[in-house]
Specification:
CATH topology of the largest domain: Rossmann fold
Protein name: ABC transporter ATP-binding protein
Helix content: 25-40%
Number of helices: 10
Organism: Muricoccus nepalensis
Pfam families: ABC_tran
Order of helices and strands: EEEHEEHEHHHHEHEHEEHH
Family: Belongs to the ABC transporter superfamily.
Radius of gyration: 17 Å
GO molecular function, one term: branched-chain amino acid transmembrane transporter activity
Number of domains: 2
Bound molecules: adenosine-5'-triphosphate
Length: about 230
């Protein structure tokens, strides 16, 4: 459903993404993996319409989305959960969630809120708490819950494991798997190569602005070169 062809992007004289090709089909969890500074955030910015592509095409269900505004991209159902849990700290949990349906899902806001609370009982318990006082893991849940309020057709998660303890990372990845099993395709942009490849169907390894390796997650997991570079094995 998402197709990226020959994508190039950067800042000024710096070219960060140098010709990316990838696709996410319905039902998949696709992982885009890479170390610090390789351009994961840049890719997310282009996919959400914040940074223009310099070259290439982005299609979502056949429709061109490169050059589209962030609002139009959200309206198409490509919903992005930003890195660093960018929630609104001085608004409560419920208000943060309701903002998620500002552009999409508004007419079913109550039903969607109920669904998010079913998925994250902890958010229901804390519905009136200021979001800024939630724990790191709870803030990450809130960011994902807010994305779900927009009735995503494809959810892009930007480093959901960032800053979480190992136990919480496991919980977060189990949750991502569950959302996917319920029918939601996911693009998972992560530094955590090992755990991402455990839940992903396919993976793309970003290095020097291009996808140095890609393939079924199981194949990548067993790749000696990848294990050497990313796992130190
Ligand atoms: P991390 O995992 O550390 O967040 P990343 O893979 O998300 O890293 P990006 O944030 O996409 O990496 O950055 C890729 C490269 O682009 C880096 O070298 C960074 O310094 C550079 N860069 C990012 N934003 C800008 C900007 N606004 N102007 C110039 N260079 C930038």
């Amino acid at each position: 459903m998402l197709e990226v062809r020959g994508l190039r992007a950067g800042y000024g004289a710096v070219e960060v993404l140098r010709g990316l090709d990838m696709a996410v089909a319905g039902g998949e969890i696709v992982a885009v993996l890479g170390a610090n500074g390789v351009g994961k955030t840049t890719l997310n910015k282009v996919l959400s319409g914040v940074l223009p592509a310099r070259e290439g095409e982005i299609r979502f269900d056949g429709a061109r989305l490169d050059g589209a505004t962030p609002a139009a991209i959200v309206e198409a159902g490509l919903i992005h959960v930003p890195e660093g849990r960018r929630i609104f700290p001085t608004m409560n949990v419920r208000e943060n969630l309701e903002l998620g349906s500002y552009r999409r899902g508004r007419s079913r806001r109550a039903a969607n809120l109920e669904r998010v609370f079913e998925t994250f009982p902890r958010l229901r318990e804390r519905a009136r708490q200021f979001a800024g006082t939630l724990s790191g893991g709870e803030q990450q849940m809130l960011a994902i819950g807010r994305g779900m309020m927009a009735e995503p057709r494809l959810l892009i998660l930007d480093e959901p494991s960032l800053g979480l303890s190992p136990l919480l990372v496991e919980e977060m990845f189990a949750l991502i798997q569950r959302l996917n099993a319920e029918g939601l395709p996911i693009l998972l942009v992560e530094q955590n190569v090992v755990q991402s490849l455990e839940i992903a169907t396919r993976g793309f390894i970003l290095e020097n602005g291009t996808f140095a390796m890609s393939g079924p997650a199981a194949t990548l997991r067993d790749d000696p070169e990848l294990r050497r570079i990313y796992l130190g094995l």
